[in-house]
Amino acid sequence: MLIGGKPMGGLDFEAIEMSARRKAIAFVGRVIEQKMNSDHSDYVGPTRLCGCGARAKYGGRKSKVFVTAVGEMRLGRAYYYCDVCERGFF
Prior knowledge:
Mean pLDDT: 90
Low-confidence stretches: none
Number of helices: 1
Helix content: 25-40%
C-alpha cells in the first residue's frame, strides 16, 4: 500500500527487511546464549585439581561477554579458585 507515494507510510522495503533481519539475528543470539548457559557440564564438583597440585574450590559461575557473529553474548562458566597458589581458573 502506498501512502504519500512511499510504501508503508514512508518506510521502504529495504528498511523493513533490515530491521527484521536485525531482530531475527538478535533473537537467534538470545536462543544460543540461553542454550549454552543451560549447560553446566563444566562443573566437576566442589573441588578440582589445580595445576599446582592443590585442590581448588568451586567459586560459582562467572560470566564473560563474548562478541560473536550474532552479537554480544554473556556466557557463564564454572570458576575455581586455589587458596594455595592464589590462582583462579575456568
